[in-house]
Amino acid sequence: MLKSMTGYGQGIIHFKNGIFDLSITSLNHRFSDIKLNGFEDFSNMEIEIKKMISKEIFRGYVVCRLKIQRDGNLDIKVLKRSKEMLLKIKKDLKIKGEIDLSLLFDNIKNIDVKIEKIEKENLLKILKKCLKDLDAFRKKEGKIIEIEIKNLLKQTKKALLKIEKRSKESVLKYEKRLKEKISKFLEEKDERILKEVAIFADKVDIQEEIVRLNSHIKGFDKLFLERSVGKKMNFLIQEMFREVNTIGSKSLDFYISKSVIDIKSFLEKIKEQAQNIQ
Fold first, then answer.
1. Alpha-carbon distance 42 to 62, whole Å?
2. Full-model pTM
3. What does the alpha-carbon distance between residue 26 and residue 12 come to, in Å, rounded to a whole number?
4. Most buried in the list 40, 127, 136, 197, measured by CB within 10 Å?
């Protein structure tokens, strides 16, 4: 299934310590380029996050933005929880004396570690959700592109059939014209006419190019089933341009030349669509 390189996914998650608002935008790009914005508090997770994104997005410019809104009273709450924990320990162990402030703040570090773990878990959770939404967006766009490309290939195939039919007719017409010209000067003309026609037919023979073009058109059917096809499709289009240009240079027939122009127009449109495929 084709996937567009253009897509968008967003997710918001509420948890005890605040809110994470995460969005992922993907745009056209020849290679894979992933940018993370707003991940200063999770710099130690950047490699992991980029790996998760690159598993889903093989090519394109990707921007992942994180907005964090934490509870403003979190520090006070943490201090209260730390104090409660120390008071419970003091009571259970029957320790006398007041709680030292240094012990209070040392305990906060342990609580911070737990909070950090919770935040990381929520971040990965919302990232998976965003990637899922992004993938659905890209599949939807990819389906539209696939339908358009298939329609253009269908028109290309029709134009190619016209060329194939016309190329056979053009050789017969040339033979007829040649016979009419030579008959004015030669009585025994058959051998010379046949030789001249054979030379002409060889020069304008485009059967190999037609066969290769048909093969390339069929090659698209396989590409529609692959995950990452953008570069392969661009290569295939280049090959098709090469074959149709050869047909144009060999042909002396007006109608074949017209069909060649039509095919080039279709291929340009396919090329334009392929620029947005992963």
1. 18
2. 0.71
3. 18
4. 127
Residues 47 and 94 in one domain: no
Q: Are residues 125 and 164 in the same domain?
A: no
Per-residue pLDDT, 263: 96
C-alpha 121, offset from chain centre: 29
In 3D space, the residue among 164, 50, 76, 68 whose CA is nearest the CA of residue 119 turns out to be 68
Count how many domains the chain has.
Answer: 3
pLDDT tens digits, one per residue of 142-193: 999 999 999 999 999 999 999 988 887 776 666 566 566 666 555 555 666 5
Measure Cα distances from 38 to 17, 117, 251, 277 in Å: 17, 18, 60, 28
> Quick check: is 2 in a domain?
no
Q: Give the integer Cα–Cα distance in Å for 10 and 127.
A: 9
> Encoding tokens for residue 160?
């190619």
The closest alpha carbon to 146, from 21, 6, 20, 270, belongs to 270
> Tokens 């950090």 — which residue?
116
Q: 257: domain range?
A: 140-274
Predicted confidence (pLDDT) per residue in 93-147, tens digit: 565 666 554 554 455 445 444 556 778 888 899 999 999 999 999 999 999 999 9
Residues 128 and 221 grouped into a single domain: no
Kind plus residue range of the DSSP H or E element containing 212: helix 207-223
Is residue 15, in this structure, part of any structural domain at all? yes
